[in-house]
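Before any further analysis, we paired sequence with structure tokens, yielding the entry below:
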Amino acid sequence: MKIKTIKTRIFRENENLMEFILKYLKKIPKKNLEQSILVITSKIVALSEGRTKEIDKSISHDKMREKIIKAESEYMLRTKYTWLTIKDGMVMASAGIDESNADNKIVLLPKDSFQAAHLIRKKLVKEYKVKNLGILITDSRLLPLRAGIVGAAVGYAGFKGVRDYRGTPDIFRRILKLSRTDVADGLATAAVLCMGEGKERQPLALITNAPVEFVEKVNKKELYIDPREDLYQPLFARIKKIKNIKSKNYYRF
């Protein structure tokens, strides 16, 4: 597997994302896109959607962030350093809102990263006349009891996000009962490591020869696990599942 990062100019809010992507893909031979995965940082997807908030100086910075995080998350808990939240079925800090490389604004996550990935893939498949092409939209996250951040998949299209080994034998013919590989997050972690988190200006990357199964339609819920079934369930033992008037699932202590 190879990862080629793509250096770009600064992407601005409300720009046309497809025009931006096509401009920088011109540097890559069309044949290289077949059976490849285009990685796109969630920040430029969100910026293209206008998913930002102005910094409100009439209230304290902490109060402003709390208000935005509450609106963006399904569950939130104050911790020593920030808010621990659940958003779109993922545990993350502060509902994914970000002030780094944001030009004095707060950038939210894309409205629907899976839908965004699907639309980008549809346009690129038509433009380049390829069949097996994946799109991966990434963000970053913290892992419990580990220093530093790693890449995470917030949306993808064109490939299976999970490889299921359950029911198959290992090298000693023992039948595997629980083993699954998180393909999407594994690719995101590798790509974000190369793309960087600072001033690298590499919001795009192309992964070639990735060990993935390309598909036309993905199951956006294949990575999700109910907190009651999760390995870390004891840590979430106090979470109660409730429904609000919009029938959207929420979690709270």
Remarks:
- The chain has two domains: 1-50+111-222, 52-108+226-253.
- Residues 242-253 have pLDDT under 50 and may be disordered.
